[in-house]
Amino acid sequence: MFKVLKRLYGEDIRYLCFQYDYTLNEHKRTATWPLISSPLPLLALVAAYLYCVYIFLPKYMANRKPYSLKKYIAFYNVFQVIACCVVIYGISTSGWTMNYILRCQELDLSDDPIAIRMAHYIWLCFIVKVIELTETFVFILRKKSTQVSPLHVYHHSSTVLYAWLGVKYYPGGMAAFPILLNAFVHIIMYSYYFLSSLGPEMQTKLQVIKSKITVIQIVSFQK
């Protein structure tokens, strides 16, 4: 496509194409990683997510009974807790327990193995955010439509985009610290969700901490 535009519009398009290629490939360490080389696959993924949320799945569930999905939900919550633990361990041991400082930690763009390791764990966090898009599908399949609010959809779709930008242009440095905080919050959240899925008796026991977890979620979202 770029070659056709170059022939039609000449030097202006050549310059724009150069800038596009430079912007995408400036940080070569992550340029070839899955879903990172170009924004187009990610934008297509988000578009497919929005299509499923607002068109396909509501039509699919229109005349169907809600699915239970209890086993899947329990498995998903355990997966999220484990994934967040892995992210915390990886990011912590790739800088924060070694040579990072809280004041202002610059991004290391070298080929140092530790810097590359940090980038890989931030990419893993991005993949987890992609998987989190399926949470909305579960709400719709269970006919919990009140949970599919505009804020919910915005949060999930925008988080994926921000995570992609992090892997692409800032996979490390001070940007890794909020990821640690977010992973800690998610461990609390998904542990609570898993325990709640065990039945009404457990839900009654957890009622005392439900409001506190809601506050934690709100505070972490604001950050």
Automatic annotation (TrEMBL):
Keyword field contains Ribosomal protein: no
One matching Pfam family: ELO
Reactions accelerated catalytically: a very-long-chain acyl-CoA + malonyl-CoA + H(+) = a very-long-chain 3-oxoacyl-CoA + CO2 + CoA
One cellular component term from this protein's GO annotations in UniProt: endoplasmic reticulum membrane
GO molecular function, one term: fatty acid elongase activity
Keyword set, alphabetical order: Fatty acid biosynthesis, Fatty acid metabolism, Lipid biosynthesis, Lipid metabolism, Membrane, Transferase, Transmembrane, Transmembrane helix
Region forming the signal peptide: none
Entry similarity comment: Belongs to the ELO family.
Full protein name: Elongation of very long chain fatty acids protein
Organism: Pyrocoelia pectoralis
